């Protein structure tokens, strides 16, 4: 049926890696459901379950699900969050329930420094290990000459030192040809020439995860709504200011997406919306659509901002991703398939 192919191709453009069985689409067609409704329903299923649900098996699955306990540890429910996973990786000696607790208490979309607050609290953790997430001696494969007190002394002098980097430099120190290497020499060398800080490593890992998400976009609707329970209200609120990083991302993305619209007009729209990406994107889309409608009608009263004949060269995306911006961008992209 032509409608089946049409729906499959439309969804495949949005979810290229998801299998879309033709028989599932055909079942929806046979229910006399409108094409737009079918696309919306299947898209929602993919966002929620990661796949198109076969409606023919719904009753059997519901019966099975009713006999399966629904409770699960809180940590399991949140491990899909890349930021939380980064905290697990870096603060690997801190109990995960402590990390989960700090994450749940301090994560706040209205606080631009929530991530730093979580890191600072974990750095101040005073459990069996020190605040800097030092590894216990039984986790280190070191020669018999290993002296724990000396290794710990590094953190007494440099509390923000990355433990992995500290271990690497300490092992080099132990291999020094001198029969009695002086730890003060190593400490002085680290202070004078610089060293890897734990916060820097954490930020680097976080940015790498964000970049990976940009290369392989993921949109987890449940996790998204935990952070932004009222996305329409939050993303379209012009009274709240955004960071300079967010402004830069919003401008470059819109300038690239609307490459024939004058730069000055894009800046003006962003300024009018207090640099909020979602309402600025909506206005540009409406103007772009109106312009082409008027062009087809050969109207002399088209858009006051005539499009350029030649598109601009694309601008480079900032090297450090802005997490909030990309969450907004994902929301805008999938907004047509979500019901709010």
UniProtKB/TrEMBL annotation:
It comes from the Eukaryota. Residues 65-77 have a biased composition (Polar residues). Residues 58-77 are annotated as: Disordered. Residues 234-306 form the E3 ubiquitin-protein ligase RNF216 UBA domain. InterPro entries: UBA_RNF216. This is E3 ubiquitin-protein ligase RNF216 UBA domain-containing protein. It comes from Rotaria magnacalcarata.
């Amino acid at each position: 049926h032509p409608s089946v192919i049409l729906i499959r191709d439309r969804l495949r453009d949005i979810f290229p890696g998801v299998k879309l069985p033709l028989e599932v689409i055909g079942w929806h067609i046979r229910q006399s459901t409108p094409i737009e409704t079918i696309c919306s329903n299947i898209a929602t299923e993919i966002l929620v379950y990661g796949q198109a649900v076969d409606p023919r098996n719904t009753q059997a699955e519901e019966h099975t699900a009713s006999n399966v306990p629904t409770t699960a540890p809180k940590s399991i429910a949140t491990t899909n969050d890349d930021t939380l996973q980064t905290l697990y990786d870096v603060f690997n000696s801190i109990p995960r329930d402590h990390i989960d607790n700090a994450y749940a208490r301090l994560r706040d979309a209205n606080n631009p420094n929530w991530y730093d607050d979580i890191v600072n609290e974990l750095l101040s953790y005073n459990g069996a290990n020190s605040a800097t997430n030092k590894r216990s001696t039984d986790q280190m494969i070191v020669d018999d000459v290993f002296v724990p007190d000396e290794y710990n002394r590094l953190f007494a002098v440099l509390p923000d030192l990355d433990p992995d980097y500290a271990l690497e430099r300490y092992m080099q120190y132990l291999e020094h040809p001198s029969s009695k290497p002086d730890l003060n020499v190593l400490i002085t060398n680290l202070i004078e020439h610089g060293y890897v800080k734990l916060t820097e490593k954490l930020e680097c890992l976080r940015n790498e995860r964000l970049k990976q998400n940009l290369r392989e976009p993921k949109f987890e609707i449940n996790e998204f709504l935990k952070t932004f329970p009222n996305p329409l209200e939050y993303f379209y609120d012009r009274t709240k200011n955004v960071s300079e990083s967010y402004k830069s991302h919003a401008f470059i993305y819109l300038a690239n997406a609307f490459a024939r619209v004058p730069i000055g007009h894009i800046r003006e729209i962003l300024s009018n919306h207090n640099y909020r990406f979602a309402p600025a994107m909506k206005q540009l889309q409406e103007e772009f659509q109106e312009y082409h409608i008027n062009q087809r009608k050969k109207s002399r009263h088209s858009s006051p901002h005539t499009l350029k004949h030649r598109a601009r060269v694309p601008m480079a995306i900032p090297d450090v991703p802005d997490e909030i911006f990309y969450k907004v961008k994902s929301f805008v992209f999938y907004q047509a398939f979500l019901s709010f």
